[in-house]
Design a protein that fits this description.
Blueprint lengths: L1 H31 L6 E4 L4 E8 L4 E7 L2 E6 L3 E4 L31 H15 L1
Antiparallel strand pairs: 1-2, 1-5, 2-3, 3-4
Length: about 130
């Protein structure tokens, strides 16, 4: 029974050190992505772009909006925001794609009396 207790304790300690090692690796990987111009999020929810990094004092200067800067501790930056790849719109070479093609006929314009009647009928449905 005592042997089983020591095995369980040893397994617990092993799992604890393993988890800490994984967390440190993830933190180191994220901090290696830090560079000026990278968009990041802080632990308290501020989004900004890195302007400069002071390795000696572990400080990062973030630009929150144009002309608005904040200095935070390097560990306060918790997430690197990846910009989604923007799809470039397909622009046709000629104006032929701008015309309406198909067999649908344009709807006949509604007269003012027909519009009023339609709106009154829709208003009665709502009540």
């Amino acid at each position: 029974m005592t042997i089983l207790l020591f095995v369980m304790l040893g397994l617990f300690v092993f799992m604890m050190f393993r988890r800490n090692k994984k967390t440190q690796q993830q933190q180191a990987e994220m901090q290696s992505k830090f560079a000026p111009g990278v968009d990041v999020m802080t632990s308290f929810g501020l989004f900004g772009r890195i302007i400069s990094i002071d390795e000696a004092e572990n400080k990062v200067v973030l630009e929150l909006s144009p002309g608005n800067e904040a200095t935070v501790h390097r560990q306060a930056v918790t997430k690197v925001i990846d910009q989604p790849a923007e799809e470039t719109p397909v622009v046709p070479d000629d104006a032929s794609s701008l015309t309406v093609t198909g067999t649908e006929a344009p709807a006949a314009p509604e007269t003012p009396e027909e519009t009023i009647a339609r709106l009154n009928k829709e208003d009665k449905k709502d009540n």
